[in-house]
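Hi R.,

Here's the chain you asked about this morning:
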Amino acid sequence: MKLLLVLSPLSLFSQMREPWISKPVAEWPQIALTNNIQYKNGDRYILPSFAYAGTGFLINNGTDTLAVTAKHILLIARNKKTNAVSINKDLLLWSMKPKGNYTDSVVIDKLINDDASEIIEGSKSSILERDMLVLSIKKSSKNIYPLKPRYSIPRNGEKVYLIGSAYDDATYSVIEGTVIGKYGLDIIINFKNPILPGASGSPVIDANGFLIGVFSSLTTDNQVNKDVAVAISTEYLKDVIMKKPNLNQPKQDYTDLIVKTTLYSGPEAAINEYKKLTSYPQTYYYYNFRSATRNGLREAGEKLLELDQVEEAIEILKFNTEVNKNYYANYNVLAKAYLRAGNKQAAIQAYTNSILRMNDRSVNEAFAELEKLQ
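And here is the predicted structure, written out as tokens:
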């Protein structure tokens, strides 16, 4: 019976709505909380200016009440003793409180998905791939409402809401959005209003009031040509609750696959292989196609340049600017490849495209490079 309750899909709620969801937002129950964390060694936040670390909330999974937030808040609430998602032995106090409300609170017991093998920061970090912490609790005020998870896949075009306590919010805010895609665990959402810092870890609920994901980060999307939100699906929450083994294994990097295919079969074959892999939703569970810190196409182009495969690198890097058209650095690498090939005019155009996407001389090297070329 417990297993059925934990894995309950939305079908059990298909004829149900949370009674509060039809009311004005001001009448919704208290959901969004702030994370207040301190470690035994005295560490709290990476900078003294932080008053709390992102947003958290409660869930009711049918058998227990648990707390949830984003994994990357450990970059802010940083225990300098370790670079791993492993805090239980060093945690002094973790409470969650409604912003502006000093009466109600949640007292955390421990981190359920504590994992000493998962790296928080650095080139080997993969915390954004499964950007969710699940915590057991010691006690909670009765006025704080636990959300019920939904485990079925959200539909494209489905209306959703983010409930967050950003640093600039007096209490909390609710932002309406629309699901525009799902890639592995990542739900991509176009929200009507900007999401401000401090909202990391906010719950994303469906139009019936059930939890579908946890806000992780922002990314660019070519469909809407603007910043969109990434929410980590409750699929990962289910895996944590069910104690799935090897839960936080990093996704495979596809850089070497692109390089090898290019060397053996040419850049066109490598591009077709990339298109084929990214056309299957299942592959996003295994390859880091949507990594916030890595770009396998750009890195493949750079490796090909190191191997003096200049024309092949240009083809891969050109394709990268079609797939990831909004990031300025992609054009800078392409410009360098054109210069290696002796194509000055194409390099100038690539650097110009870079500046159109990052018009900040202190950040973008394209300004200085263009001055040299012109």
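One quick note: The radius of gyration is 22 Å.

Cheers,
M.
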